[in-house]
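Input chain follows. Return structure tokens only.
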Amino acid sequence: MSTTPRSTAGTSADAVAQPSRRRILSGIAATAVAVVGWNAVDQSWATAAEAAGNANIVPVPGLAGTLTTDPATVDSFGHDFGHLWDNAKPWAVLRPANIDDIVKIVNFARVNGIKLAVNGQGGTGNDIESHSVYGQARVPGGISIDAKGMSKILSIGSDYAVVEAGVTWGQLTDATLALGKTPPALPDYLYISIGGTISIGGIGGTVQKYGLLCDTVQAIDIITGDGKLVTATPWLRPDLFNAALSGGGQVGIIVRVNVKLIPAPTRSVIFSLFYNDLTTYLADSEKVLADGRFQVHAGEMLQKPDGSGWRYKMEVGATYTTTPPDRDRLLADLSDVRADAIIEDVSYRDYMFRLDAYEAYLKESGHWYQPKPWLSMFLPASKTKTFMQQVEREMNAESLGGGFLLFYPYFTSKIKRPLAVQPNESVGYLFDLLRFPNPGADIQGMLDQNRRLYEIARAMGAKRYLVGSIPNMTRDDWKAHFGNRWTAFCNAKRKYDPNNTFTPGQGFFA
């Protein structure tokens, strides 16, 4: 479903040169080198007739996959899950048959000044699209690379899996559970690509034990801006490894990933504990964080059942394989919340895929297809109460629509990748405002609120998470966000993407 295009015109992220002429050639296959090329002078695709005798036409390289300019395909890659940048069409879409296709197109793009971005193409059923929410994967005037062209699980070992970057976390979870294994960290929504997730960090309910999803990555194979396929690990090309994980796709195209695995439990006892006041919620949340009694720890701010205000839910899980945990012991020293508690014993897989039913509800209600002005940040624990009191005053049921606000603590020391910038405190709180607005909601007002809340949180020492929708981010904003990591990030960008080819939609270096 298409929505009215919205943008933040005039910001640095929008400074993309438009072609002098637009020629969208329907259904051209890249293997047909004789009939397609690129006019390096006026920056447009050329027909075979135009290419004849024209020294300005650079032939598209021969590929095993396809490079298409078919309007329907281009249109489908011109929007993302957030539907806030529905006018950001690429000129062409690469559907690679192998990694060599991507190497060739990177070299082609570098030589001819064409921008590139990988499109994760996550989702279920017919609702397959980039799961960025504010145009982060957009590449207007460039080539979008369909990650579905690299979606094979290559091997599963005793404590690791090697996958192509387009594999989803759901695919990997099912494949590893069949062998009694699981990734230690998983997102709440599993139908998103592994490569796309680790390029922005990735977070889930085990962050307090294992960090972000990118912190469970042991090695990557990545194609850099000079068209080289190289391996990067914490010890081999560590500058590239650290810039690629949580770096927003700026230094290369991740094509293969080595992900850590651990033994999988078979069952989970999930406790949903409800709090009518923020202070008690914070105290209990930090108590169970400190002693590590639960394997899963999440939470959210939600409306009271009578609509009279806000309450908080701590969602914690104890996993097991043979002997169920002692429920009374786990809850004994917490506040008196057991009267309203919901306690469920479910299979580990059912809990990991728990959002499937909610996705179906959001699609049936129409919320899934609305614009999604999300706001995602990491708050310092010492300022969290003050900030959340501000949020309570500002928000109402319309602020969420069919969505929710995730809110729970974690240890910042568990976040190892330097570009996943954290508050300067030992404990942080995820603030993840995942709006699914009601039809007719004031989307621009929500975006304006995001910016205002971001400024308030930033003044308190918070850091943003790259998946959010914050308008009018400038280069200076990004420089302040990355702080003392900015210089190393810039150096890695110059070294590994000297022509500034990759992922312009992030707007870091515009």
